[in-house]
Amino acid sequence: MVSTDKTGVSSSRGEKVLGARLLEEVDFENSFVDKLPADPEEEIYVRPVRGAAYSRVNPTPPWVDDQSEYLGKKKTSSESSLEMVAWSSSCARLLGIEESSKESTRTISVLAGAEVTPSMKPYAQCYGGHQFGSWADQLGDGRVINLGEVVNGKGEKYEIQLKGAGKTPYSRSADGRAVMRSSVREFLCSEAMYHLGIPTTRALSLVATGAGVVRDQFYDGQVQVEPGAVVCRVAENFVRLGSFQLPAYRNDLDLLKKIANYTIDRSFPQFSSVTDDFDDEENRYVLFLREVISRTVKMIVKWQAVGFVHGVCNTDNFSVLGVTIDYGPYGFLDSYDPSYTPNTTDLPGRRYCYGRQPSIGLWNLTRFAEALVPLIGVRGAEAELERYQTLFVDETESSMQRKLGLLSWTSADDKLVQSFLDQMREDKLDYTNMWRALSSISTASKDEADDETVLKPLEWELKKVQEDDKRQKWVDWVRSYAARLSEDKDRDGNGWSEEERVTAMNKVNPKYILRNYLAQNAIEKAENGDYNELLKLLEVLQRPYDEQPENSIYTEEPPQWASRRGVCVNSCSS
To answer: Residues 319, 355: one domain?
Structure first.
């Protein structure tokens, strides 16, 4: 029997989406365009845009600037070259889009940036930001074009945008296009993060354009023509911290206030009725900042919990919604190394490495708070920022408590976690697999006489740890952990059964993550027109906490070849 939610959308995977529409039938809303000031210039050329939140710009069909001939290849792209590579059924259900839409020629054309429907008012957003710690002034959507808002059956609005759909006034020296390798990575990680339970933008589709795109992947003069693609990204909105920074930097307080009011009304309506009086210490902008800080803390704590490293934590890549946005040279930890950065540009200083993400979150929010000072005052900004550290500690302790399978938390548990991480780092052990293996440790281990029996639950992960002193450290740690489990009780004095604890831990410690080498396998095949591995990987990543014994090959640690450039670390070229 097919069950439906209140949107009338089928909850059965792969079945007809009841009561939904084809994408081309959607009556789009356009609140960003309708409620915020526009750039009066309609020509598409790179320029400073002042006094405006966006520029109107339509997508450019991929075949218009097919670059295949650059290296002597035949130019063959046309509308018939467009191909739906991957489609997120769960994202389509969220939007109330009919599943069969993925097979519609018009839907594919729209999602490739080759067609605009009558109700759309496409635009590119204007914003600024700090990049690698330095003010970059105007940035904006350089190759992203927003199509408008889809309203689902619950009345929820979601903005959809195309990445790689052509030039905008913010493209600077770039061509506005995207290649298959970066598009596969963005599509897969958007959906992987969603199914991990981490706040994120979504990806509805990945379309191959058939057009060539010229790229120098590592900025070393090795120019290639790569296959082009377009990703459709979905979020409640795409307003960034940098959306506020640019008008504040330019002292355009009228635009700053308009963007703030729009964002509050659109995504934080609980503050809409609150006063905007500058002298009120709890005005709507203070409450808005407080909520953005809280959401950002929760997002970063969840990143840390699964070993996700964003790679480009510039202020223009942070959403006011506290959702992960802009999947470029990201990575997940393989062996535990807090200094790991997946971005070749970040390698010299490792500003955005795993271990620094919490402090970078505060740095970015400080720049955001500074932008809001004209609306809340210096003291208001400082007071809210002071909440960050306490919030972060509280959220981290809650996260670690869940990952350890504990019902309570004590100060001694901080040391238990730290010693676990320190030993993982020393022995170069796999972050994901070690956390997952902890659920196999029984409380009986605390009384087990034989050391090797104590280590049996971690046997597979510790296979490369042969030194006696290192193995003894793990024996001691497992005994301490087992003893802690045996005495664990909630506030009412109740404990968990082993089965309950294992179930709870396996819901927060994933078995499957998007390892870079897995993405690379899918990319190399997709670049040659074989999408089977991409679709298989997507299927696995949609159930990251399930055992899936038939797919255990996807839990394996990286092979030796995965240490090369373009796999474990990537550039911003895309």
So the answer is: yes
Same domain, 195 and 47: yes
The pLDDT score that the predictor gives to residue 449 is: 83
Classified as helix, coil or strand, 448 is coil
Q: Which of 66, 141, 316, 413 is catalytic?
A: 316
In a domain, 9, yes or no: no
In the predicted model, what is the mean pLDDT of the chain? 93
What pLDDT is recorded for position 466? 94
Which residues lie below 8 Å from residue 50, measured CB to CB, with a gap of 6+? 250, 252
Indicate if 69 and 216 belong to the same structural domain. yes
Give residue 168's domain range. Answer: 23-239
Q: Which residues of 10-37 are buried (b: 16+ CB within 10 A; e: fewer)?
A: beeeeeebbebebbbebebbbebbeebe
Contact 58, 43 (CB under 8 A): no
pLDDT tens sequence across 207-234:
999 999 998 776 677 788 899 999 999 9
User: Domain boundary residue among 400, 422, 455?
Assistant: 400
At 515-524, the pLDDT tens digits run 999 999 999 9
Distance CA 332, CA 335 (A): 9
Regarding whether 352 and 439 lie in a shared domain, the answer is no
- Among residues 384, 400, 416, which one ends one of the domains? 400
Residue 316 annotated in active site: yes
pLDDT on residue 125: 99
Give the number of domains in the chain: 4
Helical residues (DSSP H) of 239-309, grouped into ranges = 241-249, 253-267, 284-306
